[in-house]
Amino acid sequence: MTEWQIDDATLIEHCEAMLATWYDDGGQLAFQYRGKPPREGKMLTVFGLAAHAHYVGRAALGLLSDPKTTLAAVPLVRLAYEDAITAQWVAQSDDGAEAFYNEEARSREAAAKDLSATSHVILASVGAEILAKERTRLGTSSDAQARHFKQRCADLTPGGPELYAYYRILCMASHATPHTVERFIVPNEDRSAIAKLSKGAVPEPDEGSWLLYFLALSLVLAGRAVDYQDATKSRRSQLRDIASTIGATSELHLTPLAQKRIADEARIRRRAERKPRRRKR
User: Fold this and answer.
1) pTM
2) What is the residue extent of each domain of the chain?
3) Distance separating alpha carbons of residues 162 and 174, to the nearest angstrom
4) Angular region, 252: left φ>0, alpha ψ -120 to 50, beta rest
5) Beta bridge partner(s), residue 208
6) With CB atoms 3.0 to 4.6 Å apart as the test, which of 178, 209, 222, 231 could cross-link to 84 if both were Cys?
7) Phi, psi (rounded to 5 degrees) for 94
8) 3-class state of residue 33 by DSSP
9) β-strands 156-157, 253-254: how paired?
10) Residue 240, burial from CB neighbour count under 10 angstroms (0-12, 13-18, 19+)
11) Which of 253, 274, 210, 216 is nearest to 96 (CA)?
């Protein structure tokens, strides 16, 4: 799906261009999906995820301009990438938005249970208050995909497992891992011993290049997810051209298996809704 054999200057230029068109349109979008007004939940979810991808992407681009701060950009690039993949998934899925909010409710409830178990009076009361609220589950076949990013990626093509593998690479450098620790240790010339410790991250060759590539890819996919629902398609040509230049796809689709799962669940719900309820005697 991806090759990042392209110079840093060009990648920076592409990222700047995409950020410029995203922020310079005045926020005016004519939302429409396949000739009809989009479902509000889907539209708001896709737009919010894409907006967040551009928001953190702009901050990441500033850090990637200096080899000394590229490591600090990794969590932001990972966020932009996760936003972009999720936005594509929600945009292409008929029940993705519902699953997305089911997962938010499940996660909030789990956090509330942890808060309730603490000895901190205020935190415990907040947790109890959240748990007291009734949670309504929305009908969807995609709860597992909303909960697990790996399964979300598996729903999409082209890419699938490859999409998740890239995410894992980004996670390695944006969590508390031995890889992160090693970035503050300077080895001697033959790398047989420690020369010194560093309070600043030790630059890695080509780190900025592959991060710029994933940032550009994320901005393309996030932008295209919104573009699907924008009647004007004002950014489509730009995003497609940049994707072609960097050797990436500009859009993802559901796999046949994912389409079948969603269609089967929708069919079951329709039948349940049509089924007459028996009167109590």
Assistant:
1) 0.88
2) 8-95+149-269, 98-138
3) 19
4) beta
5) none
6) 222
7) -75, -20
8) strand
9) antiparallel
10) middle
11) 253
